[in-house]
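Hello again, I could really use a second opinion on something today. I've been puzzling over a protein and I'd love to understand its fold better. I'm sending you its amino acid sequence along with the backbone structure tokens. It would help a lot if you went through both lines with me. I've dropped the whole record in just underneath, so have a look.
***
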Amino acid sequence: MEKSTKTTKNNGKKSTKPAITLDQFVSIMNPLIDLEKEAEISASLSSAETRSLDVAQKKGSAILNLKCIDVQTGLMGKTIIEFQSNKEDLLPPHKFGTHDVVVLKPNKADLGSPSLGQGVVYRLKDTSITVSFDDIPEEGLNSPLRLEKVSNEITYRRMKDTLIQLSKGVQKGPASDLVPVLFGERSPMMCKKDAQFTLFNPNLDHPQVFNFSSFSIFCTLWSLTPSLNSSIYPLSSF
């Protein structure tokens, strides 16, 4: 993505300033990440209202017929509730994972009915699932329950952590030289000599050599930003 710059005149001289500073970037992105998370949760809830519970359970996005077996108080005043299946010793097959955002509802409640509470998966076992709630549901815990998966918290937490690191300033490591260049605070340094490398396979054609060079540059940038790459796509998706 290209970053635009603004050109201003100062005593007859032109000076180039970054279109956005690091502090401005952090202040803009922080609420946008919250909005994206809320939009994803809202979209998940709307999608859940249009499909049956049987379909949701087959896809692993809902666990039906649960019972509350334990309620504890966790850190920061959160309520930790553990659930088990009412029918079997083991939980049915599902796609729930730790840090998934879930909603708790009565087992036979309509798809569009309000939830008893919203929380984050805290612990998973073969026989139980434990969820951390901000507020304990006032009623309904003594009846059969179900959990519906809404979204995953990990991606947003990583992006938030990255913004926190950026706001504090990257003082150490190779990224300390890269970040000012990305935000236009410092001009990039160009190597006077082209990088030379020898291919193991001399029979590669030009597109293959170009793809190899591009991937090498990507790997170099990745290694330069170990503290920031948690919010970038993993190498497996390249």
Observations:
- The two ends are 16 Å apart (CA to CA).
- The beta strands are 5-10, 13-18, 62-73, 79-85, 100-106, 117-124, 128-133, 145-152.
